[in-house]
Amino acid sequence: MIYKATTTNGVQKDQAERLRLIMKNRNETDRAGKSHPRILTISSGKGGVGKTNIAINLGIAFAEEGKRVVVMDADLGLANVNVILGIIPKFNLYHVIRKQKRIRDIIVDTQYGIQIIAGASGFSQLANLQDEDRANFVDELKSLAYADIIIIDTGAGVSQNVLSFLRAADEAIIVTTPEPTAITDAYGIIKSISSEVMGPNIKLVVNRVNSMMEGKKVAERVINIAGQFLNIKVDNLGFIFEDSVVPRAVIKQDPFIKSAPKSKASESIRHLKSRLLDIRYTEEGGLGRFLKNLFGSKG
Length: 299
Ligand SMILES: Nc1ncnc2c1ncn2[C@@H]1O[C@H](COP(=O)(O)OP(=O)(O)O)[C@@H](O)[C@H]1O
Ligand SMILES: [Mg+2]
Prior knowledge:
Blueprint: H1 9-31, E1 38-44, H2 51-64, E2 69-73, H3 81-84, H4 93-97, H5 103-106, E3 108-109, E4 115-117, H6 131-142, E5 149-156, H7 160-168, E6 171-176, H8 180-194, E7 201-209, H9 212-230, E8 234-241, H10 245-252, H11 256-259, H12 264-278, H13 286-295
Parallel strand pairs: 1-5, 1-6, 2-4, 2-5, 6-7, 7-8
Antiparallel strand pairs: 3-4
The structure holds adenosine-5'-diphosphate and magnesium ion (MG).
Residues 44, 47-53, 207-208, 240, 242-243, 246-247, 250, 265 line the site of adenosine-5'-diphosphate.
């Protein structure tokens, strides 16, 4: 459950109380020694900026470090994590939501060291689930607690579904390209997240840059505008070079970090991975907080 910022004192007090309760519950979970997968969402304002490629290749880069990684495709419109990997799963999240399958039945091991959960357009029904179905789905997601890192490819835009994933995650990675339209839309999605009291930590990635300077300039622009007009801190996670290995890998259905490990795009991804692993990650949050935020306390 997420609480809108508001100006009335009474409501604020109430919110503070509820936040304290949430923090308390989180600490109790920590003491119980449960595992906490780190949850990263990959989102953008505009489509086609490279989210799915980043989700998969970053996931593989984490797996190369020995992490247990699950990449979940929560793109409602264009579910395609499995397509980029050349995998045709029999079942997807739709079947879990419909209670026809368990998560453990639909999760797919890949030859790249990551596991994937295929998405489906039927996933949009998540927003309209009855309490009982929602509780069932949350229980299913809890079975991912063994993972070290869960990467969620949310798709573009600020639909209710995308927002609920963003709010619930530990870290929201927002992807833009240097195109003015992508930058404007990136700002739009940052603005949507920032209207929440308990938002995730927001990190920016600039994809398809032709020089380091270009990446730096675009990132500074977004970060400065977000700071100035929204009073929200956005971290600069880094950039990814424009590289012909990316479209080639998509056509070959073979991720570029494997098919072209020395390419500029692969180097860029590894750089992002190192930055994400260097950043000290507190054990707070994780799957428990994610589920709580995604579905309220019903989970
Ligand atoms: N760094 C890059 N260099 C060159 N082309 C890229 C790069 N990143 C993405 N692309 C192109 O953009 C297309 C869309 O990428 P995709 O990951 O599917 O975006 P999204 O998931 O945001 O819709 C890719 O198929 C590829 O052709
Ligand atoms: Mg995509």
